Each structure stands twice: as C-alpha cells, then as structure tokens.
Amino acid sequence: MKKAFNGRTVLDVERLTVEQGEVLSILGPSGSGKSVLLRALNLLEPLPQGTIRFFGSEVQGLEGRRRVEVSRRMAMVFQDPLLFRGSVRDNVAYGLKVRRVPSDEREKRVGEMLDVVGLRDLDGAQASTLSGGEAQRVAVARALVIKPEVMLFDEPFANLDLPTRHSLQDETRSILLERGMTAIFVTHDQEEAARMADHILVLHEGRIAQEGSARDIFYKPTTEFVARFVGVENLYRGRVDDVTDGLARISVDGAVFEVATHAETGRGVTLGLRPEDVTLVPPEELGATASSRNAFVGKVTATEIRGPLVRVTLACPFPLVAVVTRRSMEDLGIAEGEDFGVRFKATAVVVIRRDLAAPVWSDPGGASENA
Amino acid sequence: MITTAQFWHALWLSLVVSGLATAISAIVGIPLGVVLAEFDFRGRGAILTLVHTFMGLPPVVVGVFTFLVIARSGPLGSLHLVFTPAAMVLVQFILAAPIITGFTHASLQDVDPRIGLAARSLGATRMQSMMVKAREARSGLIAAVIAGFGRVIAEVGAVTIVGGAISGQTDTLTTIVVKLTRQGQTYLSLWVGVVLIVIALIVNVVLTRLQSAKGKAEPEKRVTGYVS
Known about the structure:
The complex is a heterodimer of chains A (371) and B (228). With 371 residues, chain A is α+β, with helices and mostly antiparallel strands.
C-alpha cells in the first residue's frame, strides 16, 4: 500500500496480514501513518497504490453500494468518541438503523450492548452530558453492536485519564477475546500496544520498522528507531574485539561491554540497553564491582523524577541512563555529583541493526555495518 | 381608510405569502446549502459568491427585476402573475432562499467533519452521513429558516412593486403600515406594526423551541469530557 501527500510518503507498506481472530497493535509516533493506514483499511480514504484484500476479495477502490457493503462488515472507534446529537441509546442504535435492522431486534441488541459496557443506567442520557470515559464506552458499544467482522481502533483511549484508560483497555480486550473478534488497534503508547495485542507492528514514516510479539519489540528491537521508540534509551556504537562461546567483548567509548551475541570479530555494531536493566549499587560497593561483568563506575549528572520512578543519568564515562524507584533513590542516597557503580547483564544488551541516519551517543567513527 | 375586513385579509395574506415563501425557500435552500457544504465541484465557489451576494440584495431592486420579468410585456407575462399573491410569494422566495442557503452552508461548515467519517465508519452511505451532519447542524438550520422568515415578513418594497398593494387583494401588514402612515393615521399604523412584531415573535418562539427541543441537555459546546 502506498500513499503520498504533498510529495511526502505517508504510507509505504509492502505487506500486512491480519489473521481472523487476531488482535494486532500498530504502534508508532504521531505522523507515522498509523491513522492513514487504518482509514485506508476501513475504506474511508482512497488508496492510490496498492491492494487490500478483505477475506480474500480485493476491496480497494470500491465505490458506492459495493464499498458500503464491505465497510459495513467493519467498524471503527476513533480517538474522539464523535457521538451524534441525541441520547446514548440513539447513538448505539445508529449502525443498526442504517442497516435497517427491525426495531424490536434493534432495541434488544442495544440493551444487551449497554449492559456489556455497563451503561444501561445512562441509556436515555444525552450524549453531550457524558464524561470522557462514558462517551468512549458508548463509541465502543456503537461499533460492537453491529457485530462487525473486523474492529478498528484509532487511539481510542489516548485522551482519557490513566485509571479510565486501563479500565477500558481491559474491558475492550476482554470483549474482543470473548467474541474471537479480529481487531487492529492503533496507538502511540507502548504499554497500550502490549496490553491490547499479542502481535505488534511498529510503523515509522509510513513504513513497517518491525513486526513481532511484544517481547520481540521491546527487548529485541531490530532498528535504532524502534529501540528509541520503545524506550531503549542507551544506544552505543561499538566494535567487536573478540567472541568466545557466544559472549562478545565489544569496545564502546573507552569501555568494554560483554554482550551475549554471535557477532563477528572486528564488526561495527550498535548496542542498546534499557534503563530498567541497569542496576545501581551503593558507593561503598564500588570496589567489589570492579571485577564483575559489565560493571562500571559512573558519576550522577542528573536525576529526573517521573512519578514513582526516577531517571538517573550517569557519566561512566559513556553516558548511561538508569531508572530506579524513588524509594531506592532515597535509600541509596542518589544525588548529582555522587559516584555510583552500575551493573547490567550480558543478556540485557541487544545488538541492533544500525540506522545510519540516526545519531547515537557514542560512535567510534568508521564503524562498518553491524551484525 | 383601512377597514377591519381589509386588515384581517392583510394579516392572513402576510402569513400565507411569507409562510409559503419561507417553506419553499427552505425546501430549495437547505438541500442546496447541504450540497454546497458537502461536495466539491467546479463552479462551487461561484455559486457561493452568488448566494452571498443575493443575501444582501436590496429588496426593491429584486422587486423591480421581478416585476420586469412577470409584467404583461415581460418574458413571463403570459403567466399573469403581476399584482397577484403568487408574484409576492415569488419575490419573497428570491429574497429568502439565498439567506437560508447561505446560513445552511455556514452551519454545516461548523459541524466537525469527522462526524461524517464516524457515520461512514458505522456503515452509513454518503446520503446517510449527510443527514447525520444536518441533524448536528439542526440549530443552525432552524436559525436559517428564522432568518429567512424574518427577512420576508418585514418586506414592503418588493411586495408593493410586484403585488401592487391593492386594498383587500394584495395588501400585507407592511403595506398597510405604509398606507396608514401616509394617511396620517400614525397611531393605527403603530398598532399594525405591533401586530407584525407579535407575529414575528410567535414564529420565532415556536422555531426557537424547535431549535432547542431536547436542547436543555445539549449545551452549545459539545462536551467531549476528556480526563474525567
């Protein structure tokens, strides 16, 4: 599928397959083409180049009645609820009305769906009086009541507060699983992507950057873009000095990392390390860590409180970011200017395919293509 | 001198002529406004410019042009419309239709275009999604009709030219006000004016109620309710 807008490629997907009953998350930053892709799949936007097959039949470019017939087998929930003027019941019944479902069956299905989403009590309420969470529940109910073969979600919970978001995520996932429904869930939130689906596709500038399970995406990113996007903040360029029994020694900015990999000796590589995989040890244990694998001494250069966690930046001398709890920060006495030992496992370091255009913190220069 | 019978006839004629003209204008103007809002086609800009221009046309000018067309010597002279209530309905239609069209278009422009997208994502056809958007713009559409009616119920120049303001036949409340004032019966003309205002008020109250039916729970600004 290819689409460009004002000379800029907004979509360039070679191949995307969604199996029946599968829930796929499409993850990517704003402007990566997620919504364009979803609207193209829902036949809401024209696709100048490419093919869309819906249960085996080509459907791109359909017009008029034929397009409507196919699109009626799908339903979409948007980031904004986009509820219509009228009551909750009117909204939920809308899709059934346009399909000319008889009124008694319509009433029955609307009532059942309102029970499923827990909004029976608000059935006569005006849509404009609902809270954000209630409105989005109505939007979900409005889509599900028509029993679509495919559900499409375009960041439906992005604007909700955290507890409401989690609650709706769980409810929606539960409904999708119970009904064995095929769904595509678009989001920029990694946690949401992992929560809603087992299979994730990362989109970058309209192209698929990586596809796989949540574990693969978050712990084995294959490009620097994906690594950065999923929170692998520590990225380094290095060169493999030697490899013994699957353990490589890799020079990085004056230090040597031990990494579980089968990369070739002499090869330039990009390494990634999640902040959560870095352990900080008390200053008094600095001496004891000197002989440990991947153990370094670093000076704390910055601390940043992020809710219950603290992001600690160290100079080791290579820059390193670690994440600790606030309690640990207090217990360890972590403060700017203090020296700390840092430690991480050889298996925690991931070897990433290099995106030549993206700068990383440490680049020995002249590094060749990594493994 | 205006008799009571002539007054009642003028009252009845005012309501019928303006009511009919407004109704026909709404039947033509609302769909036209919807088409101008929903579709992009060649000449759309020119049509919109024409609509906006006609919204502000001086009524007497419209009256003169209409008279020239329907006069016995004019191209539609054979229809014998001049100095009849039908001519008055015609000229008021020409005055009201652009207003209703223009306001309808503007109201629909204010509707979130994603509403149509949401309707289509639920299986609505193009026509069905347009109906949804029209319902969203209901307040604006009713305001358009109110504005159209307001324009024509108060009209005097154009209806005088094409209708002739013939006592007992083509007099309206507005033409009677003019006549009474010229006759020096200012007090009486004021009372007729009050009747005109009351009519306008009643129609506005009825249409405004329609506009805000279920409206007590529908604040003008949609509550999307984020971060509950």
